[in-house]
Amino acid sequence: MVQERRILYEHLDTPNINTYDVFRQHDGYTRFEKAIAEYQPEEIADMVKEAGLKGRGGAGFSTGEKWSFVPRDIEPRYLCCNADESEPGTFSNRYVLEKNPHLLIEGILICCYAMGIETTYVYIRGEFTLGKKMLDAAIKEAYEQGYLGENVRDTGLNINIYTHPGAGAYICGEETGLIESLEGKRGQPRNKPPFPAVQGVFMKPTVVQNVETLCNLPFIVGNGVEWYTQMGPTYGDARFDPPKADPNTGTKLYCISGDVNEPGVYELDLGLTCTELIEVAGGLRGEEVKAVIPGGSSAPILTHYELDTRLDFTSLTLAKSMLGSGGIIVMNETRNIVDCLLNIMKFYAHESCGQCTPCRWGTPWVRDIVQRIADGDGRQTTITRPKFGVTESGRWGDTGETEEIYEDLDLLENVANNIANVDTMTWNTICVFGIAVSWPAVSYMRKFRPEFEAAIREGKLVTLPVAEATVPPEENYAYQQRIIPKEFADL
Amino acid sequence: MSDEIIQIETPFQFNEENKREFDELIGRYPVKEAAMLPTLHLAQKQAGYISPAVMKYVAELLELTVMKVKDVVTFYPMFFEEPVGKYVIRVCHTLPCALRDCKVVLEHLKAKLGTDIALETNLAKGTTDDGKFTLMKVECLASCDVAPVIMVNDDLYKNLTPEKVDEILAQLPN
């Protein structure tokens, strides 16, 4: 069985780790001291790039590369720590904030040193009242100990951290939505470019990083790049190893919930399979796995045929899904996929910020279609096409071929694909919320089509056995490459 | 209609403590507007909800138009534009909680409190007649491992069953 490797979470359950004294006893702030004593800021940025650290917030973009886009000649620069953890199925940041806030502060300090940043805003979602309280207390202690404020530890650095509460909007987890919200406006995402790295908060260069990403920094600096790159997937088979240029190094805080016996956060090397993860989380609650959502509710669903998929950034992208924020939701054989999709679509219809028309209107439409199917009012027609053949009377003529058309399923796919097209990966909206809507909608429908058809046919929700409910991989559209080759697209 | 006029005519002001906290807040940002969310949180804590008078006061503090403040208030679900109960109960009903029977908890709360679920546009619908509780459905509270969960004002309660809900309601001070 795969063993947990606790690095970020090592001292999570140590009593009073949220206080400076106890944190200090467990190497606290020594990594920051090492950084300022031994390395130049640019060297730290290079180390992060070499370590192959990928952003843990959702997009999985290389952190070092993101930092390299920040112009170092424009002052002031800002760091925004994204603690607006709202993706359904994700809950790892909450524990860091509530139990080990000094680790986050140390990560922020290292980032500030590397990028020459003086001001950091930690955007905490409004519901995390305890997390904000603990972080505020830790920041106060860090000021008292001279790690924050003016002339940090006599190095001439000025670093300030402020917490900023959100107010319950999911979209503020999107980096430009977060920036708008931080500026005191509606949290509606901005057009990119300009990217936040060039023009972010208050139109100044801004680094936006997730809590988990920042918490990785002390360990990269403290233990070195070589130690860090050892962790991560090597599958002993070059075909399945992630490419050298795109490494998946380090550990990930996998949040597992739903139908498992011991839901919770497990810190594991990137790259174990779904089956292994379910085993680590105390096994399945139920008889059979019906479906797994691998990266928060916006990730395309995996069927029981795909349980050997490796849970790392590269493998899941190849499987046409994503690791996202690492929120894994497991569903057993008793779950109805139509019902699950309805729940998720209600979430997105509620959380659409209303800025772009395809999303503002399309998302509630998708919800209404799924609601209609779940209520048993799904639309269906039988069409008859002329077909030449031997008729009942024994003559040649029109035998009439009939076909069942599930109108609502086609409509669902059409509407969803017009918010964001999952096959070409293009979206008609400003931010990626659009793709977060159509990804689940289309993938659930394509991969569990028999269950949707049954609901329409029978006029009520029907939970089929797992084998019957799932479309086999060879018939599954989601597996087939349907992107038009470039040379044809130009015609 | 008449209510609204009265509310605008009853001005709102921060108390001493909140005024101090606001003065500390405003220094954190290069532009005053950025202090909007923390200021609205403070105001809501003091007034209970964001009335037109509160919006007017916040607009004056941040040197903005009232419309700009209203614009923000309407966007975020955590800001209330109508009076709410002393205890706001938020029940998470997103997928991981739904897989762990949050419906049972919600139905139990509805029966126990004798109220419906509040809508964002109609909070009175989910508020009990004595003004003690407001029952709301909310989206993911990021505690999926201990689902189903509810929040009562600022406190999170985990792994709920109808019995546990009864205990929680019983221990709330009047």
In short:
The complex is a heterodimer of chains A (491) and B (174). Chain A is of the alpha/beta class. Chain A contains 19 helices and 15 strands.
Assign the CATH superfamily of the largest domain in chain B.
Glutaredoxin
Main β-sheet of chain B, in a few words? 4 strands, mixed
Which CATH C-level class of the largest domain in chain B is it? Alpha Beta
Query: CATH topology of the largest domain in chain B, which one?
Result: Glutaredoxin
Strand order in the sheet with the most strands of chain B = 2-1-3-4
Radius of gyration of chain B over alpha carbons? 18 Å
> Care to count the β-strands of chain B?
4
Overview of this structure, please?
The complex is a heterodimer of chains A (491) and B (174). Chain A is of the alpha/beta class. Chain A has 19 helices and 15 strands. In chain A, strand 2, helix 7 and strand 3 form a beta-alpha-beta unit. The N and C termini of chain A lie far apart (53 Å). The C terminus of chain A is likely disordered. With 174 residues, chain B is α+β, with helices and mostly antiparallel strands. Chain B has two domains: 74 residues, Arc Repressor Mutant, subunit A (Orthogonal Bundle), CATH 1.10.10; 85 residues, Glutaredoxin (3-Layer(aba) Sandwich), CATH 3.40.30.10. Helix content of chain B is 45%, strand content 10%. Chain B has eight helices and four strands; from the N terminus they run H-H-H-H-H-E-H-H-E-E-E-H. Chain B has a four-stranded mixed beta sheet, covered by helices on one side. In chain B, strand 3 and strand 4 form a beta hairpin. Chains A and B meet through strand 3, strand 5, strand 9 and helix 13 of A and helix 3, helix 5 and helix 6 of B.
